[in-house]
Amino acid sequence: MIADQSPPTIVITSLAPGPRPPTTASSAWPNVLLTHVADVVARMGPPPWSKRIIADERQLVTLIASPPGGGNRPHWHRDFDEWWVVLDGVLEWELTGGTTLKAVKDDIVWVPRGTVHHIRNVGDRLSLRLAVAMPPAVHYASPCEQCGYTDDGPSEWCA
Ligand SMILES: [Zn+2]
């Protein structure tokens, strides 16, 4: 059962007064003006890991690396649809209702709110995916309907 049934609200407290240089850019993630994925991969080391690349009131963008056989903790979201861009490797999404998607580099996967998504690296090397979610990105853990998995990684992966 879901504890909080109220609809989410987004409050934007920092408004731009007009055109201006990118004053809110950071020198470290999140919100660096230019991110070379290879730099993140080199800095983070062996998988599994995740790195928040972009974060503001409306979006949470996370780069996620999984080793072969690794993946996420199956979960669903109440108030937003989530999508990913596969940057490397071979990943499989098991979804509520029996749909299974296999995606490779340059593929985009979209999953609507309410659908449990269990994501696994089914290839033989590291997988990379860029996950786009919306704050507060509350995760509701749920067993994978297809394989029964309930926990395949730290909950803070937010993916
Ligand atoms: Zn998710």
Structural features, described:
The protein is mainly beta. It has a domain at 47-157: Jelly Rolls (Sandwich). It contains one helix and ten strands, in the order αββββββββββ. The chain has one helix at 37-44; strands at 49-55, 60-66, 75-76, 82-88, 90-95, 100-104, 108-111, 117-121, 127-133, 140-141. The strands form three sheets. It has a five-stranded antiparallel β-sheet, with helices on one face. The chain has a three-stranded antiparallel β-sheet with strand order 6-5-8, with no helix packed on it. Strands 3-10 form a two-stranded antiparallel ribbon. A hairpin with a 4-residue loop joins strand 5 (90-95) and strand 6. It is globular and about 50 Å long. It starts with 36 loop residues before the first helix and ends in an 18-residue tail after the last strand. The relative contact order is 0.23. The mean pLDDT is 91. Bound molecules: zinc ion. Residues 75, 77, 82, 117, 159 line the site of zinc ion (ZN).
Spell out the key features of this protein.
single chain, about 160 residues, mainly beta, Jelly Rolls, binds zinc ion
Shape call: globular
| Low-confidence parts | none
Q: What CATH architecture of the domain at 47-157 would you give? A: Sandwich
At the fourth level of CATH, the homologous superfamily of the domain at 47-157 is Jelly Rolls
The CATH topology name of the domain at 47-157 reads: Jelly Rolls
The level of helicity is under 10%
Question: Tell me about the biggest sheet?
Answer: 5 strands, antiparallel
**Annotation, overall tally of beta strands:** 10
Compute the average pLDDT: 91
Structural class of the secondary structure composition? mainly beta
Task: Give me the Rg, rounded.
Answer: 16 Å
Element-level helix/strand string: HEEEEEEEEEE
**Number of contiguous helices:** 1
What portion of the residues fall into strands of 2 or more residues? 25-35%
